[in-house]
Design goal:
- It is a single chain.
- By secondary structure, this protein is an alpha+beta fold.
- 29% of the residues lie in helices and 14% in strands.
- It contains 6 helices and 7 strands.
- α5 (234-245) packs across α6.
- The model is unreliable at 276-280 (pLDDT under 50).
Length: 280
Protein backbone atom coordinates (compact mmCIF):
# COMPACT_ATOMS: atom_id res chain seq x y z
CA UNK A 1 0.00 0.00 0.00
CA UNK A 2 1.87 3.00 -1.30
CA UNK A 3 1.44 6.39 0.33
CA UNK A 4 0.27 5.02 3.71
CA UNK A 5 1.90 6.64 6.72
CA UNK A 6 2.37 4.69 9.93
CA UNK A 7 2.71 6.59 13.20
CA UNK A 8 4.98 4.60 15.51
CA UNK A 9 4.59 5.58 19.14
CA UNK A 10 6.36 4.15 22.15
CA UNK A 11 4.08 3.66 25.14
CA UNK A 12 4.98 3.10 28.75
CA UNK A 13 4.21 -0.38 30.01
CA UNK A 14 1.22 0.54 32.18
CA UNK A 15 -2.56 0.37 32.01
CA UNK A 16 -2.85 4.15 32.44
CA UNK A 17 -0.56 4.81 29.46
CA UNK A 18 -2.64 2.50 27.27
CA UNK A 19 -5.81 4.27 28.42
CA UNK A 20 -4.38 7.62 27.36
CA UNK A 21 -3.36 6.29 23.95
CA UNK A 22 -6.86 4.97 23.28
CA UNK A 23 -8.49 8.16 24.57
CA UNK A 24 -6.31 10.23 22.25
CA UNK A 25 -8.47 8.97 19.39
CA UNK A 26 -11.38 10.91 20.92
CA UNK A 27 -9.63 14.22 20.25
CA UNK A 28 -10.11 16.09 17.02
CA UNK A 29 -6.86 15.55 15.12
CA UNK A 30 -7.46 17.89 12.17
CA UNK A 31 -5.43 21.08 12.03
CA UNK A 32 -7.04 22.61 8.96
CA UNK A 33 -8.58 25.53 10.84
CA UNK A 34 -8.40 27.36 14.15
CA UNK A 35 -11.21 26.97 16.69
CA UNK A 36 -11.26 30.29 18.53
CA UNK A 37 -10.50 33.94 17.81
CA UNK A 38 -9.77 35.91 20.97
CA UNK A 39 -10.42 39.59 20.23
CA UNK A 40 -8.55 42.21 22.26
CA UNK A 41 -8.86 46.02 22.17
CA UNK A 42 -6.58 48.01 19.91
CA UNK A 43 -3.33 49.18 21.52
CA UNK A 44 -2.71 52.90 21.76
CA UNK A 45 -0.02 52.94 19.08
CA UNK A 46 -1.95 50.79 16.59
CA UNK A 47 -5.54 51.31 15.37
CA UNK A 48 -5.92 47.65 14.41
CA UNK A 49 -7.50 45.29 16.91
CA UNK A 50 -5.48 42.30 18.08
CA UNK A 51 -6.74 38.79 17.37
CA UNK A 52 -5.20 35.79 19.11
CA UNK A 53 -6.05 32.59 17.23
CA UNK A 54 -6.44 29.49 19.38
CA UNK A 55 -7.37 25.83 19.25
CA UNK A 56 -9.63 24.14 21.79
CA UNK A 57 -9.41 20.68 23.28
CA UNK A 58 -11.73 18.64 25.46
CA UNK A 59 -10.34 17.93 28.91
CA UNK A 60 -12.92 15.42 30.13
CA UNK A 61 -15.36 12.84 28.86
CA UNK A 62 -18.78 14.24 29.71
CA UNK A 63 -20.60 11.93 32.18
CA UNK A 64 -23.81 12.86 30.35
CA UNK A 65 -22.60 10.71 27.45
CA UNK A 66 -22.35 7.64 29.70
CA UNK A 67 -25.92 6.41 30.05
CA UNK A 68 -25.04 3.23 31.94
CA UNK A 69 -24.92 4.95 35.32
CA UNK A 70 -26.28 8.11 36.91
CA UNK A 71 -23.82 8.15 39.82
CA UNK A 72 -21.04 10.22 38.24
CA UNK A 73 -22.29 13.52 39.63
CA UNK A 74 -23.42 15.07 36.35
CA UNK A 75 -26.89 15.95 37.63
CA UNK A 76 -26.14 19.11 39.60
CA UNK A 77 -28.60 21.30 37.72
CA UNK A 78 -30.96 21.30 40.70
CA UNK A 79 -31.13 19.97 44.25
CA UNK A 80 -33.73 17.42 43.16
CA UNK A 81 -31.31 15.95 40.62
CA UNK A 82 -28.53 15.78 43.19
CA UNK A 83 -30.47 14.00 45.93
CA UNK A 84 -30.59 10.20 45.66
CA UNK A 85 -33.92 8.61 44.78
CA UNK A 86 -35.93 7.39 47.73
CA UNK A 87 -36.92 3.75 47.74
CA UNK A 88 -40.48 2.74 48.47
CA UNK A 89 -43.49 5.00 48.05
CA UNK A 90 -43.50 7.51 45.23
CA UNK A 91 -44.45 10.38 47.54
CA UNK A 92 -41.74 9.52 50.07
CA UNK A 93 -39.30 12.37 50.65
CA UNK A 94 -35.78 11.96 49.31
CA UNK A 95 -33.10 10.87 51.74
CA UNK A 96 -30.10 13.16 52.24
CA UNK A 97 -27.11 12.64 49.97
CA UNK A 98 -24.15 11.31 51.95
CA UNK A 99 -20.68 12.56 50.98
CA UNK A 100 -17.63 11.29 52.86
CA UNK A 101 -14.52 13.43 53.23
CA UNK A 102 -11.54 11.38 52.04
CA UNK A 103 -8.78 14.00 51.61
CA UNK A 104 -7.75 17.56 52.39
CA UNK A 105 -6.44 19.46 49.36
CA UNK A 106 -4.40 22.61 49.04
CA UNK A 107 -6.51 25.18 47.19
CA UNK A 108 -3.66 26.16 44.86
CA UNK A 109 -3.14 22.50 43.97
CA UNK A 110 -6.56 21.96 42.35
CA UNK A 111 -6.70 22.62 38.60
CA UNK A 112 -9.96 24.18 37.39
CA UNK A 113 -9.84 22.00 34.27
CA UNK A 114 -10.84 18.89 36.26
CA UNK A 115 -13.99 20.53 37.69
CA UNK A 116 -17.22 20.29 35.73
CA UNK A 117 -20.99 20.68 36.06
CA UNK A 118 -22.92 23.37 37.91
CA UNK A 119 -21.83 24.31 41.45
CA UNK A 120 -24.18 24.04 44.41
CA UNK A 121 -24.11 26.39 47.42
CA UNK A 122 -23.92 24.51 50.72
CA UNK A 123 -25.35 26.12 53.88
CA UNK A 124 -26.12 24.85 57.39
CA UNK A 125 -29.51 23.21 57.45
CA UNK A 126 -32.65 24.90 58.75
CA UNK A 127 -34.73 21.70 58.70
CA UNK A 128 -37.59 22.14 61.18
CA UNK A 129 -37.43 18.46 62.17
CA UNK A 130 -34.23 19.06 64.14
CA UNK A 131 -34.47 20.25 67.73
CA UNK A 132 -32.93 23.57 68.70
CA UNK A 133 -29.90 22.11 70.49
CA UNK A 134 -29.00 19.89 67.54
CA UNK A 135 -29.49 22.74 65.08
CA UNK A 136 -27.29 25.08 67.13
CA UNK A 137 -24.54 22.47 67.47
CA UNK A 138 -24.69 21.80 63.73
CA UNK A 139 -24.50 25.55 63.02
CA UNK A 140 -21.36 25.82 65.15
CA UNK A 141 -19.74 22.85 63.41
CA UNK A 142 -20.50 24.29 59.98
CA UNK A 143 -19.11 27.67 61.01
CA UNK A 144 -15.93 26.03 62.28
CA UNK A 145 -15.56 24.05 59.04
CA UNK A 146 -15.91 27.19 56.91
CA UNK A 147 -13.43 29.08 59.08
CA UNK A 148 -10.84 26.29 59.06
CA UNK A 149 -10.97 25.74 55.29
CA UNK A 150 -10.78 29.45 54.53
CA UNK A 151 -8.06 30.34 57.04
CA UNK A 152 -5.85 27.45 55.90
CA UNK A 153 -6.71 27.82 52.19
CA UNK A 154 -7.92 24.23 51.95
CA UNK A 155 -10.49 22.25 49.96
CA UNK A 156 -12.18 19.02 50.96
CA UNK A 157 -12.31 16.07 48.57
CA UNK A 158 -15.60 14.20 48.99
CA UNK A 159 -16.82 10.83 47.77
CA UNK A 160 -20.43 9.76 47.40
CA UNK A 161 -21.82 6.51 48.66
CA UNK A 162 -21.86 3.92 45.85
CA UNK A 163 -25.24 3.20 44.28
CA UNK A 164 -26.51 -0.08 42.95
CA UNK A 165 -23.91 0.00 40.18
CA UNK A 166 -21.05 0.49 42.64
CA UNK A 167 -19.94 3.70 40.87
CA UNK A 168 -18.65 6.59 42.99
CA UNK A 169 -18.79 10.29 42.24
CA UNK A 170 -16.33 12.79 43.67
CA UNK A 171 -16.70 16.44 44.65
CA UNK A 172 -14.57 19.34 45.83
CA UNK A 173 -15.88 21.48 48.68
CA UNK A 174 -14.60 25.06 48.55
CA UNK A 175 -14.76 27.75 51.20
CA UNK A 176 -16.09 31.28 50.70
CA UNK A 177 -16.01 34.61 52.58
CA UNK A 178 -19.60 34.02 53.72
CA UNK A 179 -21.03 31.29 55.95
CA UNK A 180 -21.40 28.93 53.01
CA UNK A 181 -19.46 26.42 50.95
CA UNK A 182 -19.35 25.63 47.24
CA UNK A 183 -19.71 22.07 45.99
CA UNK A 184 -18.35 21.18 42.53
CA UNK A 185 -18.10 17.78 40.82
CA UNK A 186 -14.52 16.74 40.10
CA UNK A 187 -13.35 14.37 37.39
CA UNK A 188 -11.88 10.96 38.13
CA UNK A 189 -9.34 8.93 36.19
CA UNK A 190 -12.00 7.29 34.02
CA UNK A 191 -13.18 10.65 32.65
CA UNK A 192 -9.81 12.31 32.02
CA UNK A 193 -8.65 12.85 28.46
CA UNK A 194 -4.96 13.22 27.59
CA UNK A 195 -3.93 16.86 27.66
CA UNK A 196 -0.47 18.29 27.20
CA UNK A 197 0.05 21.49 29.18
CA UNK A 198 3.60 22.59 28.40
CA UNK A 199 5.28 25.20 30.56
CA UNK A 200 7.40 27.70 28.65
CA UNK A 201 10.92 28.20 29.96
CA UNK A 202 11.35 31.41 27.95
CA UNK A 203 9.85 34.84 28.39
CA UNK A 204 7.59 36.22 25.61
CA UNK A 205 9.18 38.50 23.07
CA UNK A 206 9.31 42.18 24.15
CA UNK A 207 7.21 43.28 21.17
CA UNK A 208 4.43 40.78 21.83
CA UNK A 209 4.48 41.52 25.55
CA UNK A 210 4.19 45.25 24.92
CA UNK A 211 1.26 44.70 22.52
CA UNK A 212 -0.70 42.52 24.95
CA UNK A 213 -0.08 44.82 27.90
CA UNK A 214 -1.29 47.83 25.87
CA UNK A 215 -4.41 45.90 24.85
CA UNK A 216 -5.29 44.92 28.40
CA UNK A 217 -4.68 48.49 29.60
CA UNK A 218 -7.67 49.58 27.48
CA UNK A 219 -10.05 47.36 29.48
CA UNK A 220 -11.84 48.39 32.65
CA UNK A 221 -10.55 46.56 35.72
CA UNK A 222 -12.89 45.35 38.46
CA UNK A 223 -11.56 44.25 41.82
CA UNK A 224 -14.71 42.20 42.46
CA UNK A 225 -16.67 40.45 39.72
CA UNK A 226 -20.37 41.30 39.80
CA UNK A 227 -22.52 39.00 37.61
CA UNK A 228 -25.38 41.52 37.87
CA UNK A 229 -23.40 43.78 35.54
CA UNK A 230 -23.66 41.20 32.73
CA UNK A 231 -26.67 40.57 30.54
CA UNK A 232 -27.17 37.80 27.99
CA UNK A 233 -30.33 39.37 26.48
CA UNK A 234 -32.23 36.25 27.52
CA UNK A 235 -35.20 38.31 28.74
CA UNK A 236 -35.45 40.11 25.40
CA UNK A 237 -35.22 36.78 23.58
CA UNK A 238 -38.00 35.25 25.67
CA UNK A 239 -40.11 38.37 25.20
CA UNK A 240 -39.69 38.26 21.43
CA UNK A 241 -40.55 34.56 21.39
CA UNK A 242 -43.63 35.26 23.44
CA UNK A 243 -44.75 38.04 21.12
CA UNK A 244 -44.23 35.90 18.02
CA UNK A 245 -45.60 32.57 19.23
CA UNK A 246 -48.43 33.50 21.58
CA UNK A 247 -51.82 34.49 20.09
CA UNK A 248 -53.16 37.95 20.67
CA UNK A 249 -55.66 38.23 23.48
CA UNK A 250 -59.20 38.93 22.30
CA UNK A 251 -59.77 41.56 24.96
CA UNK A 252 -56.98 43.84 23.76
CA UNK A 253 -58.13 47.25 22.68
CA UNK A 254 -57.43 48.53 19.20
CA UNK A 255 -55.54 51.56 20.49
CA UNK A 256 -52.94 49.33 22.19
CA UNK A 257 -53.75 50.32 25.79
CA UNK A 258 -53.46 46.71 26.96
CA UNK A 259 -50.40 45.85 24.88
CA UNK A 260 -47.91 46.30 27.72
CA UNK A 261 -49.81 44.17 30.20
CA UNK A 262 -50.56 41.52 27.61
CA UNK A 263 -46.97 41.42 26.43
CA UNK A 264 -45.87 40.90 30.02
CA UNK A 265 -48.35 38.04 30.31
CA UNK A 266 -46.86 36.54 27.14
CA UNK A 267 -43.35 36.74 28.54
CA UNK A 268 -44.38 35.21 31.87
CA UNK A 269 -46.29 32.40 30.17
CA UNK A 270 -43.39 31.62 27.85
CA UNK A 271 -40.90 31.69 30.73
CA UNK A 272 -43.03 29.30 32.77
CA UNK A 273 -43.31 26.90 29.83
CA UNK A 274 -39.54 27.04 29.28
CA UNK A 275 -38.78 26.40 32.96
CA UNK A 276 -41.35 23.57 33.09
CA UNK A 277 -39.70 21.87 30.10
CA UNK A 278 -36.33 22.18 31.78
CA UNK A 279 -37.63 20.61 35.00
CA UNK A 280 -39.35 17.69 33.30
Amino acid sequence: MLGVEVDLQQVENSAFAMEMVLKTWLHEQGGDREHLHLLLPSPLDNPNSVCVKCDMQERLISPALISLTSNLGVNTESIRDFLPLAKGLANQSAVPQRLKAIKVLRADGVCESVLYGLPLVIRPTTCWKLDWDEMEANQNLFHALCHTLRSRDLFLLLQSQPGGSGVHSHYVLQSSPSLSLLLKPVACRDLLLPCSLPVSSQDPTPESLHTIQDCLAQLEEDFVFNPLSLSSNLSLHLRSRGLLSQPRYPYRSDDGEDDVASDNDDVLTNLCVTCRKGIT
